[in-house]
Amino acid sequence: MRRDVIVRRSILLALLAALPAAAATVHFIAPAEGAQVIGKTTLEIATDATEIDRVEFFVDETLVGVARTPPYRVTFDFGTTLHVHHIVAYVRSHRFQQTDIGEVRTAAGGGETITVNLVEVPLRVHTTAVATVTPKDFTVVEEGVRQTIRDVLAERPPSRFVFLVDRSISMGDGKLAAALLAVDDALDLLRPDDTAQIIFFNHNFGQLEELPRTARASARFADVEPSGGTSLRDAVVSTVTQERTMTVVLTDGGDRNSEISGETALQRMSGTNSVFFALVFDRASRFLEDASQNTGGSITTVARASVRSAMRDLMADVNSRYTLTYQSSIKKTGWRAIRIVSVRAGVKVLNARKGYFAE
User: Fold this and answer.
1) How confident is the model at residue 277 (pLDDT cuts 50, 70, 90)?
2) Are residues 329 and 241 both part of a single domain?
């Protein structure tokens, strides 16, 4: 056989080998065409393609995840607003020589964009009959209407901790020093992805200062002296953001100088993703009681000798909490009352957020 014939045949065989296989089918398992998506949602496809290199998922022309092995799925957070979305899966196969495509379009409510509140509720749960709990173990009623639970996580997500330390004159006699030692203990019990800040207040309040994991608040702020009055509500409101926050107030409980009213302060706090705790050297104010009850926190009465152990107990409680999320269907503005109950024997809800303010 002539050499040029052999070469041409080799080239032909190579070209045939490089040709893509027959088109494969790509079908979205989730979400379905025309479905509504909100919050963290699974994107998953099924395909009869072979020799798959990877599957790329795009939402509104933006790459949001890649799956290389079956099942071909990724998770994407669509936020708290229902929009129309274009979701595309590109199946790359045969050494990236072939691409097959599947796509779906999601819908907004009533064909229009609507906003739905995604509510996150930290839970203290006692279990005797089960190792872990699931959404089926609870019901959530908001403003008298049962809501759909999206998830119950058996862990606490990374959080911002704010230690709000009273430095008024009534925190003398060693109370302030004991409070700072308690903050040291709390820093030792933070999880790797947590962050911490501290702010002091009397009749004025200072700036939030970062607390690195290795910081010793008792040494760093040893020169802070008790003096002046108390503006507790003003200081609390100054720490509020939309970030997931655990605020721990260490105080003697009084408030003599705040400009903001208790009602206004509670409204600003309750509309956020925050939980408020208090370690109180005296009697807790009504404001602190309402703040902790509304957000699912707690109040503990302490003394100089017990504040450190109380802080360790508080951190153990926080670190052992579940997190329940649900999608609210309520349109009412203002205060929305929440009631969460267990529907399973052996599971008891010890503490949870009582409600929140919605704009």
Assistant:
1) very high
2) no
Higher-confidence position of 11 and 264: 264
- Residue-wise pLDDT for 279-317, tens only, equals 999 887 889 988 888 888 889 999 999 999 999 999 988
150, 69: one domain? no
Same domain flag for 103 and 181: no
Q: Which two tokens stand for residue 81?
A: 């607003």
Last residue of a domain, which of 111, 143, 176? 111
Provide the number of structural domains found in the chain: 3
Q: Are 45 and 89 in contact (CB under 8 A)?
A: yes
* Same domain? 36 vs 94: yes
pTM for this predicted structure: 0.62
Does residue 265 sit in the same domain as residue 202?
yes
Digit-coded pLDDT (tens) for 132-171: 788 999 999 999 999 989 888 877 788 899 999 999 999 9
Distance CA 88, CA 103 (A): 4
Q: Is 325 exposed, middle or buried (0-12, 13-18, 19+ CB in 10 A)?
A: middle
**Torsion, CA 233, CA 238, CA 243, CA 248, rounded to 10:** -50
The parent domain of residue 146 ranges over: 117-155+322-358
State which H helix or E strand residue 37 sits in: none
> In the sheet where 40-47 sits, what is the strand order?
26-30, 40-47, 72-77
Q: Is residue 313 part of a domain?
A: no
The confidence score (pLDDT) of residue 113 equals 45
Which residue, 42, 216, 77, is CA-closest to 157? 77
